[in-house]
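S1.2 Input.
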Amino acid sequence: MKDDLFALQDYNLWANRLLLESLAPLTHEEYVRGLGGGWPSIRASLVHLAGATRAWAERFEGRDATALPAVDEVSTLADAARMLNDADARISAFLATLTPERLRAPLAWKNLKKEEKAAPLWAVLRHTVNHASYHRGQIAAMLKRLGGKPLATDLVRWAIERHETGAFED
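S1.3 Output.
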């Protein structure tokens, strides 16, 4: 792949797709059931992941994002999936516009406490993938407790799949 950021984003999109596929069989009652372990439910975890991803998309587009949606604002799994997929698409579109110089430049934003922060853009983009991986793991553990079968979203599984299709030959 041309750049590891494109590879990481491709991995993130793949892993989020598998996460949502894993959650699709849940009933609404299972989706909202309190399970503990990080966030209180799969719904709370997914709403956090989708909301945080949307917040980063907003920041990358030059807007402030100092609040995440409350769990009760995102009623269904389908609503959270739409939010996550939309934010992922926005981040992918943003990434496609970046030059090496812009990636090295700092990104300034206000965090959820409305504090001014800054870090190199390349690091923040990698953070979005790392953050998603962390919460996908929490959600997978909760899904297992419900008797579900989370699909594996390991980076190496993505790499094996892409390698087998010849995606890395460019």
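S1.4 Remarks. Residues 121-145 form the longest helix (25 residues).
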